[in-house]
Design goal:
The protein has 184 residues and is α+β, with helices and mostly antiparallel strands. It contains 5 helices and 5 strands; from the N terminus they run αααβαββββα. The longest helix has 14 residues. The chain starts with a helix and ends in a 25-residue tail after the last helix.
Length: 184
């Protein structure tokens, strides 16, 4: 995971120099531990490594990090996860509309998220990435791990000429994904 993040840092800093300063500074181990305590959670190592690289992007930055979505700072991600989890059984009365093991990492600004699934809903694979659509019930697993997802983003930067970059920054297809599921 460390090499994947270092490669991503290189790509963004050299290929998107106007965007790179929009990324927040890294979190320290102490800051992560404080957030884990506040939200009564133990974060997986790969998530810690991601946030020890950069803590999301600045609030007033509207450029996409990946898949037409912004990179969420960890405190906001854990707060959103906590708020959404508290709505299970009330506002979210459809089974698996939201899951208490999901941590949103990326959002499109319209209530939709790409979430880290620490529980492995649907597949049993902890650490997969799943899409949460606020108005639709499809819950597609889009990557088996965060590292694979970020590796594919690195592939995008490697294979796409700079003049072909668009505001979407879509991760190239991962073999066997998405795996399609429905909340019902």
């Amino acid at each position: 995971m460390t090499n994947t993040i270092l490669e991503l840092d290189h790509h963004i800093s050299t290929l998107r120099p106007d965007y790179y300063p929009d990324l927040n500074s890294a979190l320290t181990d102490e800051e992560i531990a404080s957030l884990e305590f506040k939200y009564n959670i133990s974060l997986p190592t790969d998530l810690k490594l991601l946030y020890k690289w950069k803590n999301g992007q600045k609030e007033l930055s509207f450029d996409s990090f990946v898949n037409n979505s912004k990179f969420i700072p960890l405190d906001q991600a854990l707060d959103t996860a906590s708020n959404n989890t508290s709505m299970i059984g009330t506002d979210f009365d459809i089974k698996n509309w939201w899951n208490e093991h999901w941590i949103p990492l990326f959002h499109n600004g319209a209530g939709d998220y790409i979430c880290y699934d620490a529980g492995g809903l649907f597949t049993g694979e902890k650490g997969q990435l799943i899409e949460f659509w606020h108005a639709d019930n499809d819950r597609n697993v889009i990557a088996p791990t965060l590292e694979v997802f970020l590796s594919r983003l690195n592939d995008y930067y490697t294979s796409t000429p700079e003049d072909a970059f668009d505001e979407y920054f879509a991760v190239p297809a991962i073999k066997g994904y998405p795996k399609k599921f429905i909340a019902k």
